[in-house]
Amino acid sequence: MSQTAHIRSHRKPRPQSASRIALRAGVAGGVLSTVAVAAAGTASADPVTQTIEMPTLTDALASTAAESANATQLAAYGYELQAEQDAAAEKAAKAAKKAKAEADRKEEARKQEAKRIAAERAAEQAASRSAERTTLTTASYDAPAATGNVASLIAFLKAQVGKPYVMGATGPSAYDCSGLTQAAFKTVGVNLPRTSQQQSTFGTPVAVSDVQPGDLVFWGGTGSAYHVAVYIGDGKYLDAANPSKGVVIQEMSYYMPTTAMRVL
What we know:
There is one protein chain. Helices cover 44% and strands 11% of the residues. Helix 4 (148-159) crosses helix 5. It is of the alpha+beta class. A six-stranded antiparallel sheet has the order 1-6-2-3-4-5, sandwiched between helices.
């Protein structure tokens, strides 16, 4: 080995600067460090002390961090509360919509029922008021005196004259038109249906010009009649006319019926 090579192999490592060593020690440890370094060259030097001060968590930073965390939490609560309020509002809106639809349905049903009643009353009033009808002679309605069940039927009907008309009433203190005829025929053992529409299909059809005492006479078509009375002879019929007249006897020529049925 050459002398030059021998000298290189025994050369000491080049010392690093004191400041670089202190920096590395401070960064690695995360604390203040004191480092003694050797002097340059082969001779030792006096220790060198250097410190690095790391950032510290001050009260101000801690307070700021806490406030930020609180603000984030409050914001989250706010979003959750808003979502609950939105859901409640939507539920209330749906319930209100459903309630309104139900109220509208009931109101429409009430209006339709009111119209039906008004139409029926108007028809009955027209039946009692109108005098501009085709008239037939009284002789056309002359018939033998009533006997048996017919006589009993007419006697019961005459006993009701003067009682009030009440829609839906079937006696004994008040009647509507079909309630009166139903009650009268029941006294002679005949069970008539309840309404004038139903009664207009019960029995044997006869011409209005051929009616006899005890026959039912109707205004309106068969199956759709809106008023009913009983022919009692001598060109007259007896009926529960309307709220203003009650149960009365009227001239057939005053307001001619359109159909008739014989039951007895």
